[in-house]
Design a protein that fits this description.
Strand order of the largest sheet: 4-8-2-15-12-13-14
Distance between the termini: 40 Å
CATH topology of the largest domain: Aldehyde Oxidoreductase, domain 4
CATH class of the largest domain: Alpha Beta
Helix content: 10-25%
Oligomer: single chain
CATH architecture of the largest domain: 2-Layer Sandwich
Length: about 800
Amino acid sequence: MTVTGSPTDLTQNAHTTPGGVGESTLRPDGTLKVTGEFAYSSDLWHEDMLWGHTLRSTVAHAGIRSIDISGALAVPGVHAVLTHEDLPAAVTHYGLEIEDTPVLAHRKVRHHGEPVALVAADHPETARRAAAKIRVDYAELPVVTDEASATAPGAVLVHEHRTDPHSHHVPHPNVVHRQPIVRGDASAAALRADTVVTGDYVFGMQDQAFLGPESGLAVPGDDGGVDLYVATQWLHSDLAQIAPVLGLPEEKVRMTLSGVGGAFGGREDLSMQIHACLLALRTGRPVKMVYDRYESFFGHVHRHPARLHYEHGATRDGRLTHVRCRIVLDGGAYASSSPAVVGNAASLGIGPYVVDDIEIEALALYTNNPPCGAMRGFGAVQACFAYEAQMDKLAAALGLHPVELRRINAMSQGATMPTGQTVDSPAPVAELLRRVEARPLPPERQWEVAGGAPDLRALPGGVGGTTRGEGVVRGVGYAVGIKNVGFSEGFDDYSTARVRLEIAGGVPVATVHTAMAEVGQGGVTVHAQIARTELGVTQVTISPADTRVGSAGSTSASRQTYVTGGAVKHACETVREQVFELGRRRLGSHHPAWAQPGLRLEGGRVVTDTGETLAELADVLGDEAVDVVREWRHRPTQPFDRTTGQGRGHVQYAFAAHRAVVEVDTELGLVKVVELACAQDVGKALNPLSVIGQIHGGSTQGLGVALMEEILVDPVTAKVRNPSFTDYLIPTLLDTPTMPVDVLELADDHAPYGLRGVGEAPTLSATPAILAAIRAATGLELNRVPVRPEHLTGTA
């Protein structure tokens, strides 16, 4: 890793307190996870618990004539069977933005795998056998699977009676949301272009593929409420959706975060939360639900598949004249976060380039395909694949190197987005490209071993031994992307932190309590680092995340270090000032410096800016504790205009660039990614080790969708064809290339410590860089992902 940039003024404590901001501190849960001792939500146990199971639809679109549960009720060990008719409250639907998702199917099902009934039994196999005895009489209906079938005259409506906020401005009821963005005059600008290139692109449906399946434990309370221990990304959003369906006030639904085995957006929506609570309240017993891998593919949303059409124009010297594009996202049967994904895809749809004349249309469809919603990159990934392919195509038409064309048009600080928003923090797009291009290329033919058989691990096809290097060619490709950080379009994006400072056993101890979901991103480590930096103490305890403290929002949108980290910093600053005030009242008469500015906390002492000790924290606090709760908000955003798309819709922008080096066996259609180098500006690396981990993880997910990951849905029946890790492939260690990283630290003056969200940006540019490299190796156009062997051998 190479780290460069301008230093950010943290506090005077930053370099004096071990384990503070800027250090690569180890994760408190790291050892437990790698040794298999960490307790995930699927490990929860209660001595008298029952097991819950969900019966799911076997068809994608059908009316429900009847449901016969008598066979399930007759199974010994079954304690409850619930259908829609058994729901306890008038509220029977939920949703992140639009409440269109039924808790249990009512009168019809809209996608393959939709929940229809619930069973609670004294053993998980008993629950499954009982669910299999439920008889559902379906009257199958025509399925809507793409834009043509969704918007044709007389098209079947996925939702017959829409009343949501977007229903009045969409061109068809099967369109969830539509966002145009218009700036300048793209038609007039096209006449000035010396070269125009167009392209149609297809992006497959990707699964988050987290390793810990959906699971949780609901325990009924003595007060008629329920305690829910669950793996999620957003405790308070879950709470707001769960309580109305249960018919309970929110204070009677108490939620605690359990161990999360990955998320990547797939846990923003509810899965088993309401179902477990319903069964627990009906039976009066704790109920545990754990999805197996097959059910998990049906139990959470996926990345939107997309079809994209782009037109780019440029002058002879490579200056972009205009961009026109149309992005169609398949949202599936329910809205989830599709409206926000549309906003992201549209507003980020031309990439990190300066273009004055723009015409963009982005929309999401209702179909009978699986529901789609949040996944790392959130609409920007699909757009980046297309606009970067266009930049390569345009560079070839102009006779320019792909990096040179990008540099000519790269935005920088002060540039204007298609939405009219000014980029008011560093945007080092050209520098990121320069860095990945300047890296030495890895040696060629690395599979050759002197005096021996080839190293199969370095060949396309790997240890399968399908090639010995014949017909293998190398390609190099580049890509760069732009991703927003934080919630957008006027959403009240804030977080809450409680920080307590006290003396325990003669040692100052800070306790940090937030509702942030730790899903593997390392937030618990960063919060402790912030507390050490701001409070000058070594001992920091992170309380379990739950709903006893105010909302922290979702662990998504690369926002938690920014927003919840900002809340922890703000609370710590308030604690620090209260400590100084307490010291002034108790001990100020002993030293005139108590009345002066420049005091700080360091090593359990109050010291002056010259390092002189005024008092020990133990003397200042005594038996008291300073306990503070603070909310923190970033700068406000605003919705995009529904006609022009103009508006200050985003908080912050993140940038990453990749260079991919691939080797392709053109006869067999096999690809080996040899190296995937990345350069990214992170503003400030609060924990450099975690930053590198995030970049490696995002890059690997981009590799996955480039080469192997796709949920296949039958175009006739809308049924999922590969709901297992046998048929849905994800990268393994053997597929992961060398991934050198350059980290730039160019501070954003508007953000805590100058930081910039890290986790999503590398997912964008990894995919198009790999595709560009494969195109360079093969000469093929390759306008869809993932690339399969038949696309490379001409047998598709």
